[in-house]
Amino acid sequence: MMQAVFAGKKIVVGVTGSIAAFKVAGWVSDLAKEEADVSVIMTQSGMEFVTPLTFAALSGRKVHSEMFGTEIDDPMAHINLGREADLILVAPASANTLAKLANGLADNLLCTTVLASRAQVLICPAMNSRMYSHPATKENIKRLKSLGYTVINPAIGLMACKEEGEGRLAEWDDVKEYVARALSVNDLRGTNVMISAGPTREPLDPARYLSNRSSGKMGYALARAAFRRGAHVTLVSGPTTLPCPVGVDRLQVQTADEMYNAVISHAAKNSIIIKAAAVADYKPAKNHEHKVKKDQIKSHLELEPNKDILLALGKMKKPGQILVGFAAESQNLRDEGVKKLKKKNLDIIAVNDISTKNTGFEVENNQVLLINKSGEEQLPFTSKLHTANLIWNDIVRLIPT
Length: 401
Ligand code: PMT
Known about the structure:
By secondary structure, this protein is of the alpha/beta class. It has 15 helices and 21 strands. Residues 198, 214-218, 256, 275-279, 281, 306, 308-310, 325-328, 340, 352, 360-362 line the site of ligand PMT.
């Protein structure tokens, strides 16, 4: 379950004529479970694929489809649904509906509602890949974007027509992040942020490396939260098994030296930088070309220090740039945090307590002591995503107005 981003939000889901309509039934069910207030509008073609009863049962509301006729409860539905909506999600969006919306046509309840609304509109195209790649569809998508609608790229894969290509409805996990972004306070809109996450691996030979227990979960949660709040996010990630968060540009690195190069070369473009990565402090003095024999390892384990990336960032910090560090400590959290805050010229440091099994490395939850130049705040024991949002709340207060 995500944070209470969806609860009580009025979402209009527009279902049009595509075989992928059945998948959107699952989306409506999930949004209803998240306690969103979902109203479904179906086009005539949409109702050829899935019955309105399915969506009515899942959303707990009557489905809208007609503009005219004696059966209509609300003759002003096209105005009222659009006026009250926090978000309109058109999914699946057929080529026909894309063309109508791009040209401002209003010949059915869905298109009329979109035209009469000032809510954010998310469009998820789904169609045969040749229809999707046709220049007319491409032009329509360009026009929809220029009108301020968000068009979520379809996925690539095997489609119902047995052809392989781009045109499959995007996955709900991805679309859900865009829905969350549309419904969240976008207090980082237009801000470039860079986050480093995960461990680094320092090779000794082709088989062995030095590393640490970081899973990347904390840094990835910060990236996900920043995307939802409207930021453009660059994530510099050490090796992890985590999928790239939706909407985030990920640069993958292995060693501390690679992380140093990636972070330093992107630093000037970003007004907020968070270093949640656990960078190895030392690396083997030599990366051997061939596997070191077992009985020779001891004599080959000479170490040399890695460059301190955060220290370098602190030295080159531009006026107004916000620099946030992390620290993983098992004792004297406050003193160690304050020392690093000062030494590395940071604005905030988030100190993890790694003396317990339930916080810090690898696990889903965390408990962080946040220290800035004017004080400190003990954050509660909570999920890493919630921790990330609490850290962002603190950072946002420091953004120069
Ligand atoms: O990834 P998870 O499994 O979710 O775990 C999260 C975490 C515990 C790894 C993370 O939240 C965390 O605490 N990261 C920092 C851990 C750490 O390396 O602390 P440190 O005290 O060694 O370093 C202090 C700061 O300097 C960190 O921001 C670190 O990124 C940075 N640093 C350190 C060494 C170095 N050579 N270059 C750096 O930039």
